[in-house]
Automatic annotation (TrEMBL), chain A:
Name this polypeptide is given: ABC transporter ATP-binding protein
Annotated ranges, domain ABC transporter: 11-254
UniProt KW keywords: ATP-binding, Nucleotide-binding, Transport
Organism annotation: Geobacillus jurassicus
One MF term in the entry's GO annotations: ATP binding
From TrEMBL, chain B:
Membrane-spanning parts: 6-27, 34-67, 79-100, 107-124, 155-175, 202-222, 242-266, 278-298
Keywords attached to this entry: Cell membrane, Membrane, Transmembrane, Transmembrane helix
Subcellular location: Cell membrane
Superkingdom to which the source organism belongs: Bacteria
Name of a matching Pfam family: BPD_transp_2
UniProt keyword Secreted present: no
Protein name as annotated: Branched-chain amino acid ABC transporter permease
Membrane topology: Multi-pass membrane protein
Lineage: Bacteria, Bacillati, Bacillota, Bacilli, Bacillales
PANTHER family in UniProt: ABC TRANSPORTER ATP-BINDING PROTEIN (PTHR30482:SF17), HIGH-AFFINITY BRANCHED-CHAIN AMINO ACID TRANSPORT SYSTEM PERMEASE (PTHR30482)
Length: 263, 328
């Protein structure tokens, strides 16, 4: 790591592996991510994409290898500390506080961000709290969710829940944002909307996106990683990946055989 | 808001006037309800707000009861001393037991709390020298406050009422605070709370210690009030009763556990005067509640009055509160 301790490297993965019993899901993956990079991760189902994210966020611990973040080893750091440190994820399946409102969900993020989560009694500093509510309202407005701020999450449409899921990630003010299929299950219109919002995020946020919608991922990423059977198959520019014959074969093998090309 | 304050004021006034309205029998019944209500409120922090179902909460009730009994017998019957010491001892016990319990969830949490409480039961049941074994401890000196003798039931009632009000206010403030919001978040989705950077284990640990400490206070009041303490107060059936109080009253609400405690104590008193099989009746009532009114008395009342109200959302309430304070 020492030789790579350059300023602009934010995440460095050194030969991590993960196996469940005898099943090797991630095989010795190494990766260096620069600050502000936008990386798309594609690969067929079962390639280990989500498992790889889980290793980066600490939701799973690797069986081998090391992970460095901002030059410090975080291989065994618990997930909530990584979230505090700025490695933030969204989930593949909506994973929200369903009985609570959108604003409740958002406030839980903001009250921690602003160091107010450990107030044990009624808010003392009302002004600070008011600022918190204003911040929440501002975020909701930017994201076009102001109308449903006081709706319970479980009553929202799937697409709206998906937006809340991503909004919570953004509200964390991440340094590294890991988006696990942000547009999965959304309509075309919703997908375009989300893709546009993601494109407009501040450039200093490092982003890694797992995505099956190739239009979205090619529109967003400036670097593509193809995962296949738990290993990095290709790591290169989008054009490179798009034109790679082998990617076509592994990624959409069946469709290819049927005479269609999606890449 | 005004309506709520009016109801609270009326309830406190009524409780304060109780010694002039009721006979001694009913006054003692009321005192018992208040003590068990504190106990149920403390368990509600875990069951209702944090989503941790404990079947061993009698451990802290018993620890508080025995600590207070032993202290008043061996050292000093000063009410403040025995109360604070019991709170502290119960909190320390909760800090030790919680270290193990908060690491697991759901069924395993329930079994682990049960196991610890039964260990404490075995100890008090078998240690004849310290805790009097199966006879428990009796003939406790009546509590004093400074030079004031609290042996008079009316004085004792007021002291219990005061402790109840203080505990109720402390817990209401806590569950409405940012800390309380985190507990609710953990109950709703612990994985999400971790993903947004909360050390949920630490929050659960804090909730466990608070619940244990206040459970200890209720136990100390109980032995002070009764003048004796027996191993039954630590037995798992006691944990079961208080869990039933919380669930029947309405878990995750402040008034629910109080109503649940009142309901069970009154039912027990009425039914047990007619039949010795009163536990059968209590069990039957509990089953009816679980099947037909799972939200408890409070949930049922709310469903009748305002069915669509979003009672779980804390942000709207907090915002109203903050706006009001900022304007002052």
């Amino acid at each position: 790591m020492r030789k790579e301790a350059e300023k602009d490297v934010i995440l460095h993965v050194e030969g991590i592996s993960k196996h469940f019993g005898g099943l090797q899901i991630i095989k010795h993956v190494s990766l260096t991510v620069k600050k502000g990079e936008r990386i798309g991760i594609i690969g067929p189902n079962g390639a280990g994409k989500t498992t790889f994210f889980n290793l980066l966020t600490g939701d799973l611990l690797p069986t081998g290898g090391k992970i460095y973040y901002k030059g410090k080893e975080i291989t065994r750091m618990p997930n909530f500390r990584r979230a505090q440190a700025g490695i933030v994820r969204t989930f593949q399946k909506n994973n929200l506080l369903n009985e609570l409102t959108v604003l409740d969900n958002l406030l839980l993020v903001l009250q921690r961000k602003r160091g107010m989560a450990n107030i044990w009694f009624k808010p003392r500093n009302a002004r600070r709290w008011l600022a918190l509510f204003e911040e929440a309202e501002h975020l909701l407005q930017t994201w076009g969710l102001a109308d449903i701020a006081n709706e319970r999450v479980k009553t929202l449409s799937y697409g709206e829940q998906r937006q809340v899921e991503i909004l919570l990630g953004i509200a964390m003010e991440p340094d590294v944002l890991l988006l696990d299929e942000p547009t999965a299950g959304m309509s075309q219109a919703e997908t375009n909307y989300i893709a546009e919002l993601l494109r407009q995020l501040p450039k200093d946020i490092t982003m890694m996106v797992i995505e099956h919608d190739l239009d979205v991922v090619f529109g967003l990423a400036e670097r593509m990683i193809v995962l296949y059977n738990g290993s990095i198959f290709i790591d290169g520019a989008p054009e490179e990946v798009r034109s790679d014959e082998r990617v076509n074969e592994i990624y959409i093998g069946k469709e290819k055989a049927a005479g269609a090309s999606y890449l | 808001m005004n309506k709520r304050m009016f109801i609270s004021a009326a309830a406190i006034l009524l409780l304060a006037a109780a010694p002039f309205l009721f006979s001694l029998f009913y006054l003692n019944l009321l005192a018992e309800i208040l003590i068990l209500a504190i106990f149920a409120l403390s368990l509600n922090v875990l069951v209702g707000y944090t989503g941790l179902v404990s079947l061993g909460h009698a451990a802290f009730f018993g620890i508080g009861a025995y600590a207070s009994a032993l202290l008043s017998k061996e050292w000093s019957p000063q009410f403040l001393v025995t109360m604070l010491a019991s709170l502290l001892i119960a909190a320390i016990a909760a800090a030790i037991i919680g270290l193990f319990c908060v690491r697991v969830n759901g069924f395993y949490f329930l079994m682990l709390t049960l196991a610890f409480s039964q260990m404490i039961y075995s100890f008090v049941h078998q240690s004849t020298t310290l805790t009097g074994g199966s006879n428990g401890l009796s003939g406790l000196p009546s509590p004093v406050f400074g030079t004031l003798d609290l042996s008079h039931p009316v004085f004792l009632y007021y002291v219990i009422l005061l402790v109840f009000i203080v505990m109720y206010i402390v817990l209401s403030l806590m569950v409405k605070s940012p800390f309380g919001h985190v507990l609710i978040g953990i109950r709703e989705n612990e994985m999400r709370m971790k993903a947004i950077g909360y050390n949920t284990t630490l929050y659960k640990y804090a909730a466990f210690i608070i619940a244990g400490a206040i459970g200890g206070v209720s136990g100390a009041l109980y032995s002070t009030f009764n003048g004796f303490v027996s191993p039954n107060d630590v037995y798992w059936t006691m944990s079961g009763s208080v869990l039933i109080m919380v669930l029947i009253g309405g878990a995750g609400t402040m008034i629910g556990p109080v109503l649940g405690a009142a309901f069970i104590v009154v039912l027990e008193t009425i039914v047990s005067s007619y039949t010795t099989m009163w536990t059968l009746i209590i069990g039957g009532v509990f089953i009816l509640f679980v099947v037909f009114i799972p939200q408890g008395i409070v949930g049922f009342g709310r469903a009748l009055t305002k069915p669509s109200a979003n009672r779980l959302s804390f942000s709207r309430k907090a915002k109203a509160l903050v706006k009001k304070e900022a304007n002052q």
